[in-house]
Structure formats: C-alpha cells, structure tokens
Amino acid sequence: MSEKSLSAEALKDTEFTSKPLYVRQTRAAPPDNQEIPNEPASEKPVINLGEAPDGGLTAWLVVIAANLMLFSTFGLTNSWGVFQAYYEENLLRYTSPSAIAWIGSVQYALVYFPAILTGRLFDLGYFKIPCFAASCILVVCTFLIAECTQYWQFFLVQGLGIGVCCGIIVGPALVVVFHWFFKKRNLALSLTAIGASCGSTAFPALAQSLIPLIGFKWTVRVFGLVLIATLGLGNLFLKRRLPPVNVRGGLLNLQVFRNMAYSVFCISGIMAFLGLYTALTYMSVNAIAIGVSKNFSFYIIAITNAASTFGRVSAGLMGDKVGALNTMAAFTAVAGIVTFAWPFATNEIQLIVISCIYGFSTGGYVSLFTAPAAAMGKIEDAGRRVGMFMSLAAFGAIAGPPISGAISTASGGFVEAGYYAGGIILCAVVMLLLARYLHLGCLRGKC
Q: d(Cα 429, Cα 427) in Å, to the nearest integer?
C-alpha cells in the first residue's frame, strides 16, 4: 500500500507531535474477537495510534484486564510496608531494618527493570505466553512466602521471585492500553492504574484482619488464592490490537536518547523513584515508633493506597486537558512537600492527613509516567521505549528505600530520611519541567 501522511484532523489532538508523522500501513487490525498469536514480527511499521477505537466492549475489557494485572502486581509489591513492619517485629526481628528494606527495594526495582526486555518482546509479538507463565510463578512464590523462615529465603522468594514475575507482567499490561486508546489515553491509563491502588489497599487490609485470626502463613496463602482469581481473569481478557512489528535495532534503541526531552524525562524517573518509595516503606514503622498502635499502623498503608485511587483518576482527567507532563509535575511537587512533613507527624490524625495527601499525589505520578515515554515516538516502538524508561527508573527504586533506611538508622529517626527523600523528589520535579520545556521549546503549552 502506498505511503501516506496523517491528516491535520488526526494530528490536532496529539500532545507530543511537533512535526508531521508518516506511516506505512501494512495490514488492517484484526477484529475484536480475533486473538493475535505469538508470531514473527513484520519489519514494516503498523497503523497509527490515532486509529485506535477509544472505546468499545473489547477496549474496556482490556482496561479491566490490565487493571486486574496491576491489582495483582503493584498491589502486592506496594503493600511491602506491611511486610516490613511485621518482619521487624516478628520473623526477622534480629535483622536490621535497612537489610529488611533491601527485600522490598529489590522487589520494587524488579517490577520495572525487566521492562527493557518485555517491552521489546511485546513489540515483536511475544506477549500472552510470557504473561501467563509469570502469573503462574507469581502465585507459586506467594504461597512459598508462608514457608520461609530465613532472611535469604524471603529475599529469594519475595524480593527476586515476585519482583521478576511482576516485572514481566506490568510493562506489557500498561503498553497494550495504548493500542486501544488515543484521545482518551490518559483517562484509560488512570483507570488501569486504579487496580494498583485497589490492590495496595486490599492486601494490607486483609493482612490486618486475617493475621490475628488465622496467622501470617494462612494470610499469605489467602493472598495467593486472590491472585489466582485476578491473574486468571486478567490473562483471559488482556489482548493487543495492532500486529507485531520488528522495528530496527535490538533490545535497546539508543538513538531515542538523541531526543533530549526523553533523556531528561528518564533522569527525572530515576530521581523520582529514589524518593517516592521512602514514605510508603517506612510510614508503618514510623507510626509504631511514635506510639501508634500496631493494629492501626497496618491501616496506614491501606489509607495511603486508597487515597492514591482518587489521585490516579484526577490525574487522568487532568492529563487529557493540560497534558501528562504538566499534571505529573504538579502532583509530584505535592508529594515532595508532604515527604518533608511526614516525619513530623506525632499522632494518628496527623498521620492520616499526611498519608491521604501523599497517596493522592503519588497516585497522580505513577498513573501517567508511561504516557510521555510512549508518546515521544512511534507507536510500533512504544514497548521498547517505555521499557527503557521503566528499567532506568528501577535503579532509583532499588536504591531509594535502603538509602533512607541507612539514614534513619544513623540518625535515630526519620526526619533526615524525609529531608533526603523530599529533596530528591523536588529535584525530579525540576527535571520534569525541563523535559517539558525541551519538548515544547517554550514555557507555556499543553504537554
């Protein structure tokens, strides 16, 4: 088929387009009820994202499926604060908090790091089988947590096993939403991301309710049963719309870093994750330290993640109006300020207020962070581009909580750790604004 350019009508709502785009249409997208198997990828580009349906039964089922996948992955990993507090008080009470935090930080990092591989595999068409295999292993690892007694066992099963499996699932589950939505992509992403906050609320609440009744081991086994249901439904309805494409290059597309806006955006991601997980990891521990009951401390994480639900929806609606980068910068700035204030909370009311604001603001960032990376280039390379960003951000996620833990151990409190985390988050905001300026070339505009 002959080469054709996108019309002005298709381009007028494209946030990250500064030049006309040219694509080669190779074949039509399959009907909604037709599954695309893992197949060798074509070497030609595919149809443009502007032709996405932006709705319909299949498209919204994909959002629900991706929502369930994030419920199962981010929901479990973002509940690490509950495990951190329980391990410090019980199973690993003779291990330092900083060492225990390494389990959680490795888990956080591995949720993002495999995206550099899974994103490329997604572009090539290898999507359903890796997700299903990772889902099965994730369930097995969750059940194995109940059998662990030593630090190295928790690190291997919960840090490495669950982290890698979540990483294999998360990247493709986020990118596939771009196949089905264009004008409403930020809203679709935020609705997808609600799954993470719902899971991050449900798992801590379950832990608080079930541990006193049936013990830690059976509580974790209940987590495994929940994952069987959510991951099963997610794998059933998650599907791509566009055919796979073998774009030039291998695992990495280093040429994309010639785009200074993308490069600065990646740096901002590393800096953001260096700080964002500090309060989420240590808020429960700090609550116990200031005299809050252990029962209530478990609910702090649930409250934080519940508040992030509203932040994710608000960010999605705002992102479609003013742009993803503008929205992320505003929400992340609030998160940085609250991180400074968090260690100064002295009672339950103050902790609830801080956790609500913190959850709301961080929800705005994590619901949209894939949008700029996916939009800064062609859709057929979106998986690799998003994967590269997420893998770089993983370095911040793996280092952030242990650094904060070491600072709090050395200082005897969390005030200095709050200064460190809040400061690095605000530095990330500066980099977000710089990326926005580099892309637009001016100080004002939708981006």
A: 5
